[in-house]
Amino acid sequence: MLTLERGDPAPDFEAIDCRGQKVVLSEFRGKKKVVLFFFPRAFTPACTLEVRNFRDNHERITAAGAELIGVSVDKSEKNCKFAEAEGLQFRLIGDESRVISEKYGVVWPVLRIDRRATFVIDELGIIDQVIHHEVQVYRHLEDVLERLGATAG
Known about the structure:
Radius of gyration: 14 Å
Number of strands: 7
Structural class: alpha/beta
Strand content: 15-25%
Strand order of the largest sheet: 5-4-3-6-7
Number of helices: 5
Shape: globular
C-alpha cells in the first residue's frame, strides 16, 4: 500500500537525470504540473512497455502543461542506457540509493525495487492523483492523460 495520497504535499527531491541535468521538484512549483512515475527495473518487458507508452505520448503530456519524470532504483548508468536505447525525450533518474523512492513510499519491502506507481503533482506541489497498477501498465498512461485532460493524439 502506498503511503502518499491525493492532497498530500509532494516530497521534494534533488537528483541528476540521464542528461546530467539537475532535477529539483520544487523548481516546477508555480510553473507546471509534474507526472512522476516509478517503475521496477529498466530493460524488463513490462517496464519497457510502460516507458514506451510514456515516450510515445510525451508530446501530449507536455502539451497539457506537465513535465514527465521517470524514476527507478537502477543505477544511473543502467537507466541512461535504457533511456538511450528507447529514445526517451523525458527525464529519467536512477535512484540507486532509494532516497526518492523511499520519500514516495514506493519501495517493495523485501524486493527493494520500486512499485509501479505514478503521481500527478499540481502546480502548487500537491499530489493531485496517485496511480498504482502493477500489472496493467497501459492504465498509467491512460489515467495520466485523463487527469491532465490531454487531447487524443
